Amino acid sequence: MRFTVYTLFSSLIEPYLQEGLLGKALRNELLSVELRDLRRFAGNRTNRVDDAPYGGGAGMVMRVDVAGQAVAELAQDTPPPTETILLSPAGEPLTQRLVEHFANLPHLAMISGRYEGFDARVERLVTREVSIGDYVLMGGELPALVVLEATARLLPGVLGDADSHRQESFSSGLLDYPEYTRPPSYQGHDVPEVLLSGHHGNVEAWRRLQALRRTFERRPELLESAPLSDEERALVARWRAERGPTP
């Protein structure tokens, strides 16, 4: 899979791409990442890509013609990107389902802004806007890396165990179950006995129950769309009844 990221600060992204499983996947050519400098489209001697907002106000806004030239350049790529994302706090939330969609694309492009963000007309030039959370950062480089890593880890060969991501939070529609490793006892807190039993069926049943309970307690809204059995839905209903009405 191919990623193209437009940014003003490639140097913020490059070091991250050298390390860990992502760096290994790049060296093994399981994916490719190309960083492109938005300042190439500035069209002035000072390489400025921003200007003051119409109507006044604090901060500077990145110009639509700069993003427009980036999108035009992408159209000349082989293959051109199936999706071109504008990273923005106003975008749709990044979810595991959306990441799984990206992982099936041959080429994904992202445009990361700075300052007060891009001129609103850029929204018409991209296929979608994506937000990584309800907070504001200094730029789109970190969101680009979040999208890139979340997507890359779903690509064949990137993770050591191809099945590991299917057992993690959100992939099953639930939060992940709690994990334990050595030592078996730490400051009075013991590893659950079932995990030491060697009985795979009991371990799997315990993990599923813990994932369901964690989701119920921490992210109950996920249960509305999670694929649950009739027995699990009855169990959740019983927990709700035991808990009583929420304040």
Q: What would you note in describing this structure?
A:
The chain has seven helices and nine strands. The protein has 247 residues and is α/β, with parallel strands linked by helices. A five-stranded parallel β-sheet has the order 2-1-6-5-7, sandwiched between helices. It has a two-stranded antiparallel sheet with strand order 3-4. The radius of gyration is 22 Å and the shape is elongated. 23% of the residues are buried.
Summarize the helices and strands and which ones pair or pack.
Elements lengths: L1 E6 L2 H4 L6 H8 L4 E6 L12 E2 L9 E2 L1 H12 L7 E11 L2 H7 L4 E6 L15 E4 L9 H12 L32 E2 L2 E2 L9 H19 L11 H14 L4
Parallel strand pairs: 1-2, 1-6, 5-6, 5-7
Antiparallel strand pairs: 3-4, 8-9
Considering the chains and any ligands shown, give keywords for the structure.
247 residues, two-stranded antiparallel sheet, 7 helices, alpha/beta, five-stranded parallel β-sheet
Give me the count of strands. Answer: 9
Which whole number gives the mean pLDDT? Answer: 94
Helicity range of the residues? 25-40%
> What is the alpha-carbon Rg in Å?
22 Å
- Class by alpha and beta content: alpha/beta
Gist?
The protein is of the alpha/beta class. It has seven helices and nine strands, in the order βααβββαβαββαββαα.
